[in-house]
C-alpha cells in the first residue's frame, strides 16, 4: 500500500481536520486555540508581497547564454570568456506602468531583465525593449512614474499629467517617439529586441577599459500590434504575451536573441557629438558598429510563478569582475534604487532566495534580517578584518578607476540637443509608419484638457521635424505656435 500523503501544518505537524474550524459547540464561537486555522488565515493575508512600483506585470523563463565570438580582449567577465561557453540565465519581461492585473498589450515600454548565473556571482542586465529612456537623471524618476500612475482623487489614468510632464521635459521626445511608433506595442515578448539602454564599462585582464552598449536582437523577427488589435486583445485575453511565451517554450519553440555590443574607446566620450552617458540618446552604429557576442536561448518555463518570476529581483548594481558602470546619471540612481526596492518588497535576504541565489558560494559578513532561511553563517567569524581566516577582499577584482573632475553642484548634462535624434527617427520611417505614429500621438493627446500642454508638446515635435509637429497640430485642430 502506498504511503499516505498527509497534510501538515507549516511546522510539519499532521492536520487532523482541514474542513472545519475548532468551535465551542456546533454553532461556535470559534476558538483561538485552533492554531491551524490561525496559521492558514495569517499566511493567506501575507501571500502577496507588495507588487513592484514599476514593471509589476511580467513573465519569465529560464535558458542559457552561449558565447559565439571572442571578446576577451575587451572584458575579463567569465561569462564572455571563451567561444562555446554556456552560462545559465533567467529573464523577466514586463510592462512598465500598469498594475499586476493590467493587460499585456498596452502601449508601454517592455522591461528586459536578464540574470546570468556566472562562476563569479550573478550578473544582472536590467534594460528595456528600447535603446533610450524618457529622462536622463534619476532625480526625476519618481515624478515621471507618478504621471504614469492613477490620479489620487479619481483613481483614473491621467493624460494631463503624462503630457504635462513630457512637454516640460523635452529630453523625453526621443523615447516618446519610439513609444508612439509601431514599436510601442510588440506582438509578443519573443518578437522584440532588448537593450541594456545605459552605457556600461568593460575592463579586460590588463585593466584596460572601453565603454559599451548592449543590444539583444530577436531571432524571431520584430513584429508589432496595431492599436485596434492590441485593444481587442486587452479585452479578450489580457495575458496574451504571458500565454504566448509559456506556450512557445512548452511546445519546444525556444525563443532566441543574438547579443551584440557597441564599443567606444574611453577617450571618445570627451569628444562625441552627443554625451555617451545620456540615456535619452543612442550611439550611431556607423560610428560604433555592432559586434557579436553570443546567443541567448530560452528553453525552460518556471515551475512556480511566484517563487521564480514574482520573487526574482534584478539590479543594474549586480555586477561581476570585468563589467562596471558609467557616469550615466540615470544608471547611478538605479544602482541604489533597485536593490533598495527589493529589500522593501521581498526582504533583506532576497538575494538568498533560490531564483536569485548565486550558483557559486557566497561568503560575506552579512547576517540576520527577516526570512533568513540558511544557517546564517553558523558560528563562523562575523566581522572583518579578523584573525580567524575569514573571507577577505581580492585586490585583483577591484573596480578599475577613472578620472573625474568638476565642482560639486546640481547640474544638467552639457549637451541639450533633444531634437536631432527624434527627428532622425521620424525621417527614417516610411510614409505609413509616420502616419501611424502621428495618429497614435493625436489619439493619446486628445483627452488632455489644456491646450497649453498640447501646444507646448507640439513645439517639441516641430523642432524635431517641421512636418512631424505640423501633422500632429493639424490632427488636434491646433496651429503650430509661432515661437518654436
TrEMBL record:
InterPro entries: Catalase, Catalase_3, Catalase_AS, Catalase_clade1/3, Catalase_core, Catalase_haem_BS, Catalase_immune_responsive, Catalase_sf. It catalyses: 2 H2O2 = O2 + 2 H2O. The active site is at 55, 128. GO terms for molecular function: catalase activity; heme binding; metal ion binding. GO terms for cellular component: cytoplasm. Its cofactor is heme. SMART domains: Catalase. Pfam families: Catalase (PF00199), Catalase-rel (PF06628). Residues 8-392 form the Catalase core domain. Its EC number is 1.11.1.6. Residues 1-24 have a biased composition (Polar residues). Gene3D superfamilies: Catalase core domain. Belongs to the catalase family. This is Catalase. It comes from Bacillus gobiensis.
Amino acid at each position: 500500500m502506498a504511503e499516505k500523503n498527509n497534510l501538515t501544518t507549516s511546522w510539519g505537524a499532521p492536520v487532523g481536520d482541514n474542513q472545519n474550524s475548532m468551535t465551542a459547540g456546533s454553532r461556535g464561537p470559534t476558538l483561538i486555540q485552533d492554531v491551524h486555522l490561525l496559521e492558514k488565515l495569517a499566511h493567506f493575508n501575507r501571500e502577496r508581497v507588495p507588487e513592484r512600483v514599476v514593471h509589476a506585470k511580467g513573465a519569465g523563463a529560464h535558458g542559457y547564454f552561449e558565447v559565439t565570438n571572442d571578446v576577451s580582449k575587451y572584458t575579463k567577465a567569465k561569462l564572455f570568456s571563451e567561444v562555446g561557453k554556456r552560462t545559465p540565465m533567467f529573464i523577466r519581461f514586463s510592462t512598465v506602468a500598469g498594475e499586476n492585473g493590467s493587460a499585456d498589450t498596452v502601449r508601454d515600454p517592455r522591461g528586459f531583465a536578464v540574470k546570468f548565473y556566472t562562476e563569479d556571482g550573478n550578473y544582472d542586465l536590467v534594460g528595456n525593449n528600447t535603446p533610450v529612456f524618457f529622462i536622463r537623471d534619476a532625480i526625476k524618476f519618481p515624478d515621471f512614474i507618478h504621471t504614469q500612475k492613477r490620479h489620487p482623487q479619481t483613481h483614473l489614468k491621467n493624460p494631463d499629467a503624462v503630457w504635462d510632464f513630457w512637454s516640460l521635459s523635452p529630453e523625453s521626445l526621443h523615447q516618446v517617439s519610439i513609444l508612439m511608433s509601431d514599436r510601442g506595442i510588440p506582438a509578443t515578448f519573443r518578437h522584440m529586441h532588448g537593450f541594456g539602454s545605459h552605457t556600461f564599462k568593460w575592463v579586460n585582464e590588463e585593466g584596460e577599459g572601453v565603454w559599451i552598449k548592449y543590444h539583444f536582437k530577436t531571432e524571431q523577427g520584430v513584429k508589432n500590434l496595431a492599436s485596434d488589435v492590441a485593444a481587442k486583445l486587452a479585452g479578450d485575453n489580457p495575458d496574451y504575451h504571458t500565454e504566448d511565451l509559456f506556450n512557445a517554450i512548452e511546445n519546444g519553440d525556444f525563443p532566441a536573441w543574438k547579443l551584440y555590443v557597441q564599443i567606444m574607446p574611453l577617450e571618445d566620450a570627451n569628444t562625441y557629438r552627443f554625451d555617451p552617458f545620456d540615456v535619452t540618446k543612442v550611439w550611431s552604429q556607423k560610428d560604433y558598429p555592432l559586434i557579436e557576442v553570443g546567443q541567448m536561448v530560452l528553453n525552460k518555463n518556471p515551475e512556480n510563478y511566484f517563487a521564480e518570476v514574482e520573487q526574482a529581483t534584478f539590479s543594474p548594481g549586480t555586477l561581476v569582475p570585468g563589467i562596471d558602470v558609467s557616469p550615466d546619471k540615470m544608471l547611478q540612481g538605479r544602482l541604489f534604487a533597485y536593490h533598495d526596492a527589493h529589500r522593501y518588497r521581498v526582504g533583506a535576504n532576497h538575494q538568498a532566495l533560490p531564483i536569485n541565489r548565486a550558483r557559486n558560494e557566497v561568503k560575506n559578513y552579512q547576517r540576520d534580517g527577516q526570512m533568513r532561511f540558511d544557517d546564517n553563517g553558523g558560528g563562523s567569524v562575523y566581522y572583518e578584518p579578523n584573525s580567524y581566516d575569514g573571507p577577505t577582499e581580492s585586490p585583483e577584482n577591484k573596480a578599475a578607476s577613472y578620472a573625474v573632475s568638476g565642482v560639486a553642484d546640481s547640474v544638467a548634462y552639457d549637451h541639450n540637443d533633444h531634437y536631432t535624434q527624434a527627428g532622425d527617427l521620424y525621417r527614417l520611417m516610411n510614409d505609413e509608419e509616420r502616419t501611424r505614429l502621428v495618429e497614435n500621438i493625436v489619439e493619446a493627446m486628445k483627452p488632455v484638457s489644456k491646450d497649453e500642454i498640447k501646444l507646448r508638446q507640439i513645439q517639441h515635435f516641430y523642432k524635431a521635424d517641421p512636418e512631424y509637429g505640423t501633422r500632429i497640430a493639424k490632427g488636434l485642430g491646433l496651429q503650430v505656435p509661432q515661437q518654436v
